[in-house]
Amino acid sequence: MAEGGGDDSQEKTEDPTPRRLEKAREEGQVPQSKDLGTALVLMAGATGLLLFGGAIGGELKQMFEFNFALERGQIFDTSQMLQHLGQSATTAAVALTPLLLALGVAAFLGPIMLSGFLLSGKAVAPQLSRMSPIKGLGRMFGIRSLVELGKSVAKVSLVILIAVAILDLRTEDLLAISSESPNRATEHTLWTLAWSFFLLSCSTIIIAVIDVPFQIHDHQKKMRMSKQEVKDEFKETEGKPEVKQKVRQLQQEMTQRRMMEDVPSADVVITNPEHYAVALKYDGKSMAAPVVVAKGADEIATKIMEIAREHRVDVLRTPPLARAVYHNTEIGDNIPEGLYMAVAQVLAYLFQLRQYRRNGGKKPVMPKLPIPDDLKRDE
């Protein structure tokens, strides 16, 4: 049962998600229109007959003459039979090749025009549900079967109406054939049949134009999802909230671990001193500006200062600068240009402090650090 216990959650009210459509395509479930394929094949055949019919008729006429105009000796010569058969087959194949190619191309394009080229082993894999007699009877007498029956009746009716209209238009033409010579009558008949077939094939275009949107709509309807299915898919693809939270926690721990490993390489750690700590590193030979190698607040800041002191990295109390760097940078970033002067003064003070520790003398005083107003951050 779906979460919340509501029946409406089981209704297919939601549009299919891209993942749902992708999985359906992998299983071979795509919108298909048999009428579109039929229309393409019939139109290709009719057009091929109109374009190549004359050449085909001429080749076939020569083939008939070659086979029927035989001398008496050839009739009783069995070796001539294979020769005539082979030559006739070659002639027929050459004559019909353009028409067969057109039909082959149309038969190939028909299934892929609507949904693109698709190879799916799942679509042809045997399924026990398809072999169930009970489910088979359900499909035979279900609503979908009645819809398909209605479509078939409508298609046949449309074709019959157009056939009757074509026959009515060609009545005088057909009656005129009886008064023509045999050769002329044969050509006239074939030409009339070819054009009638072409016009009749055009009726399938009307059927396809109606069927294609219907199949797309029907497929979209079948792919609809319930609200619970959408939620389940989101959890499956995006991950459960608790898992995502755990992943984020682990990522943060890994980032902090790497960050802490970089603290000993820092030149100085500037602090708030209690809330923030930022570790800076600068190498004038390889860096254009000081880089933030670690930063943190509260407990993390305390940990950064502990590691710094363990490795004898200077920790300086510079509250305004520490807050400005903390809030305006990320780990690995160069410090903002507006803080160049302040950090340069800190590094200069640090150099003087180290000199004082080694040689004694007058202890340096931390200068007042210039922090631009747009980079200042309050406590």
UniProtKB/TrEMBL annotation:
Ranges of Basic and acidic residues composition bias in the record: 9-28
A GO cellular component entry from the record: plasma membrane
Membrane topology: Multi-pass membrane protein
BP term (GO), one: protein secretion
Region span, Disordered: 1-32
Residues spanning the membrane: 36-56, 99-125, 189-214
Main location: membrane
Keywords tagged on the record: Bacterial flagellum biogenesis, Bacterial flagellum protein export, Cell membrane, Cell projection, Cilium, Flagellum, Membrane, Protein transport, Transmembrane, Transmembrane helix, Transport
Top-level taxon: Bacteria
Keyword Zinc-finger appears in the UniProt entry: no
Location(s), subcellular: Cell membrane
Pfam families: Bac_export_2
Chain's role: Required for formation of the rod structure in the basal body of the flagellar apparatus. Together with FliI and FliH, may constitute the export apparatus of flagellin.
Similarity section: Belongs to the type III secretion exporter family.
NCBIfam families linked to this entry: flhB
Protein name according to UniProt: Flagellar biosynthetic protein FlhB
Organism lineage: Bacteria, Pseudomonadati, Pseudomonadota, Gammaproteobacteria, Oceanospirillales
Gene assigned in the entry: flhB
